[in-house]
Amino acid sequence: MLETRIIVEKKPKFKNPICIVGLPGIGNIGRIAVGYMVHELKAKKFAELYSPYFFPFVMINNNMIHTLRNEFYYYKGKKNDLILLIGDCQTYDPKGHYEVAGKILEFLKGVGCKQIITVGGFGTGQVSEKPTVYGSVTENEMVSRYKKMGIDFDISGQIGTIVGASGLLVGLSKLYGIRGLVLLGETTGFPIITDPTAAEAVLNILKKILDMKFDLSKLDEKVKAMHDFIRKLESIQKQAMEQLGKEKKADDLKYIG
Amino acid sequence: MLETRIIVEKKPKFKNPICIVGLPGIGNIGRIAVGYMVHELKAKKFAELYSPYFFPFVMINNNMIHTLRNEFYYYKGKKNDLILLIGDCQTYDPKGHYEVAGKILEFLKGVGCKQIITVGGFGTGQVSEKPTVYGSVTENEMVSRYKKMGIDFDISGQIGTIVGASGLLVGLSKLYGIRGLVLLGETTGFPIITDPTAAEAVLNILKKILDMKFDLSKLDEKVKAMHDFIRKLESIQKQAMEQLGKEKKADDLKYIG
Amino acid sequence: MLETRIIVEKKPKFKNPICIVGLPGIGNIGRIAVGYMVHELKAKKFAELYSPYFFPFVMINNNMIHTLRNEFYYYKGKKNDLILLIGDCQTYDPKGHYEVAGKILEFLKGVGCKQIITVGGFGTGQVSEKPTVYGSVTENEMVSRYKKMGIDFDISGQIGTIVGASGLLVGLSKLYGIRGLVLLGETTGFPIITDPTAAEAVLNILKKILDMKFDLSKLDEKVKAMHDFIRKLESIQKQAMEQLGKEKKADDLKYIG
Amino acid sequence: MLETRIIVEKKPKFKNPICIVGLPGIGNIGRIAVGYMVHELKAKKFAELYSPYFFPFVMINNNMIHTLRNEFYYYKGKKNDLILLIGDCQTYDPKGHYEVAGKILEFLKGVGCKQIITVGGFGTGQVSEKPTVYGSVTENEMVSRYKKMGIDFDISGQIGTIVGASGLLVGLSKLYGIRGLVLLGETTGFPIITDPTAAEAVLNILKKILDMKFDLSKLDEKVKAMHDFIRKLESIQKQAMEQLGKEKKADDLKYIG
Q1: By C-alpha distance, which of A114, A112, A149, A157 is closest to A133?
Q2: Predicted TM-score of the model (pTM)
Q3: Which of B62, B150, C74, D147 is the most buried (most CB within 10 A)?
Q4: A130 touches chain B (CB under 8 A)
C-alpha cells in the first residue's frame, strides 16, 4: 500500500451531506462525540480508510485481526444527510496528516459534500464544569450564524493553532470546494483519556447546527464503554511502539527513519 | 528504484494456492519454519522482492554480491499449491511495512491466491518446553476450524498487537480478497536468534492445516545451518548500521531523516 | 494531498516576467523586502502554494482558519511584469525543499518566466550600519552587469552555502530554462526576527536591477507591522511543535519518522 | 523536484559501453580514481543527475551557484566506450540510495550499457604501502577472469557489506540486465579525506580490466587539487548541516523527520 486508500463498501446517494469528523485527539472529545452520534443515530458504515502513515501493526480483538483504520458512516437526515467519520487513530507523521486529509476531502468532494465540521478539544489546563465550545471557520460570513448557536469565536488570543486532522481537514477544505467549521470543546488537556462533559457540550452545539434531536442521556454510559476500548488501544500502541523498538534496534535506526 | 518491486522469474500456474510467509522476527520462528519447508519440499524459486525500504547495503557472500531481498518459492501440492515467502529482512521503516505488504498482497491476488498464513513468534519471557501456537484470523468462521487443529485463539488478553509483516500482511489481506491467518509460536523472546522448538510446534500445526506430510527430523540440523547464516546477516546488519553512522556523520543527520 | 500543489486563482498574461522570492529565513530579510514590495506596488495575488511538507497545523487568525502557504502576487510593470512570491514558511524537510522548489520553478516556467531573484540573509555575527548585499548567479556573464549595481560577488571565501529555498530555487532554475540571482543582505544572524536595514539595502539594489521606483519611506512602519505577525507565527510554530510532541508522544516516535 | 532526475545534455551513441562509478566514500578512492580518469582521458560531460535526496543547499563557487549533483562523462574507446560517473555527494537517506541507484541503472540500460564497475574503499584500520584491491561480482563466472588481473576475491570473511552507492549499484544491476563488479581499494579508513595510493592501486587494476593505457604520473598532483575541493565541500556540508540545525530548530524537529 503506497498511498492512503479509501475502500467503499456501499455507495449511498447523499442529499446535501455534511461531514462530521471525530478522530482521536485532546480529551478524545471528537471521537466520543461523533462515536456517540454513530451509535445513537444507528448510522451505517459505508467506507473505510487505511493509510501507510498509520502504525505498522495490527490489533487482536476477540480472536480477530483488527487493522488500524478510519471509518465513514452515514445517516439519512431530513434536510441533510450526515457522513460521520471516526477512527482508531490519526497518523504519527506530519506529511501523513496532509495525505490523509487530502484523501478524505477528495472523497467527500466526490460524494457531493459541501460542508465539513471537525470536532476536537482545546486544553486549558483547568477543569471547567460548563465547558465552552470554541469555533473557527473557513469563511467569514459563517461566524455570525454560528455565534448565535453558542459557539465562541473569540479565540485568536488563546488558541494559536490546531494541530493534526481537525485543523488540516478544515484548513484544506477550501481547495476541494468544501466549507469548514472546527469545534473545539474546552477541556483540561491533562492526560486523562476521555472528557464526556466537553463532548456533551459539543454535541449540544451540533444538535443546533444540524437542527436535529437525539438523546444525550446515554452518553456517560457509552463513553465509559468507549473509554475502556480507547484505553486498551492506547496502551497497546505504547506496547507496540516499545516492541518495535526492541525488534528493530531502535537506537541504531534513529538516524535512518 | 522508487518502489518495492517483485521480479518474476517464472510464471507457474497455481492450483488454489495458499501463501505461507516466514520472515525474520521474534525468535525467527517464521523464517526457520518456512525456510525448512522450502528445503524439505524442494520448493522452487519463482520471484524475488526488492524494496527501497530495505537497508541500503549489499552483503558479500562467497565472492558474490548479495542484495537484500525476499523470495517467493512454489510447491505443487495435491489439493493446494503452496507459495512460500521467505527473506533476508523486513523493512526498517513503518511506511515501508505498508508498501511491502501491499505489494506482496497485490502480487498474490494476481496469481489467484485466496489465503495467506503468516508465521511469527510471541515472546512470553519464559521458556516453554511445549510451546503453544497462537492464532488470529480475518474472518470469524475460521476460528472453530483452526481451533480443532490445536491453535489457541484465546489471546486477546495476552497479545495486544502484532508488529510488522506477519500482522500487516494478514491485516490488509481482506482488501485484496484474501483471507488470513497469523500463527504465533510461543517463545521466550530473549535475544537468542532462533527457536527451533517453537518452529517445530508451528510446523506441526501447518501440516494439519495443509493436510500434508513432511519429515521434521532434519529440523534441528537445518536450523543450525540457518542459524549461522542468520547470525552472520544480523551481525552484518549491525556493523553496516555502524558504518553508515560513521560515513554519514549520523549524529549530524539525525534530524534530517 | 500527496504533493505540493499550486492553486491558480487568476491566470494573468505576463510580459517578460521576473520572479522575486522572499520567504522566511535568516533575519527574514527576503520576507520583509518582498512583502514590502507587494504592499507598496499593490501587487495582486493570483496563486497559492500548499505543501504536505509544511507543518501539519493551521493557525487561527481573526476567527478564521489560516492554512500555511506561499503566495504568488503579480505587478504589471513597464518593461517587465513582476511575480512576487512570499509566504508563511519554508518546509522543515530536506526532501521537501527540492519538491517545493521544483514545483515553483515548473510553475514559473509555465507562465513564461525566464528570470528568478531570491532574497535572503547572510549572518555575519556582527552589526553593520550599512549592510553589504552579496550576490551569486547561475551564469557567469551576469556577474559584471550586477556588479555595477553594487552587488558584492566576492563571497566564495565567506559564504560557502545557501541553505533552503533561496539557494535551491536558483540552484535548480537552470533545469527549467530560468536564470537566477541570489541576493543576500548582510545581517547579524542573531535570533532577532527582522532586520529592516538589510531589507532596505536589498530593496535599493532591486530598484536598480528592475529599473523601478518605489517609495521606501514606509518600510520601518510596515516592517514593524509584519514583525508582530511574524513573531506570532514563529511563537505559534514553536507552541505547535511542543503540542505535537505531547500529543504524539514524541519521544517514543523519534525513531519512527 | 519530486524524483531523482538525469538531465541529458548530449546523446552520444555508445559502443559496448562500460560504466565506471566513483562517488564520495571511504578514503574517497572512487572519486579520486574516476575523477582522474575523467581528467586524463579528457572525457566529455553528457548528463547530470540531481536528487531531492541530496542536501537541500547550494554551494557558492567563484561567484556562481553550484548545485549538488552527479555527472556522467564519456570517452570513446577502442573496444569499449566508457561512461564515467563522478559526483559531489551520495544521498544522506537510505531510501534515497535505492532511488538514485535505480535511476542510474535505468539510464545506463537505456544507453545500452551492459557492465558497471563501481570503485570504493575498504577501511582496514591499518596503513598499507601496497594496498590490495578487493572485488565482488554479480555473476560467479566473472571471478576467475578478474582474479587473474590481481583482484582479491577472498573477502567474505573480512568485508561483510558494502554500504551505499558502490554496493547498491552493483547489487541492483542484475535487475536492469547489467553485470557488475565492485572494486574496493584497501585503505586505513581513518578520517583522512583522500588516499591516492589506494586510488592508484585501483587504477592499475582498471587499466588491465579495460585494456587501456593512461598515464598515472600526474595522479598525486591531481589528487592534491581535488583534495582541496573535496575538503572544502565536506567542510561546507558540515557547516550547512549546522546552519540547517540552527535555522530549523533541529532539536524540536528531530521527531518530525
Answers
A1: A149
A2: 0.92
A3: C74
A4: no
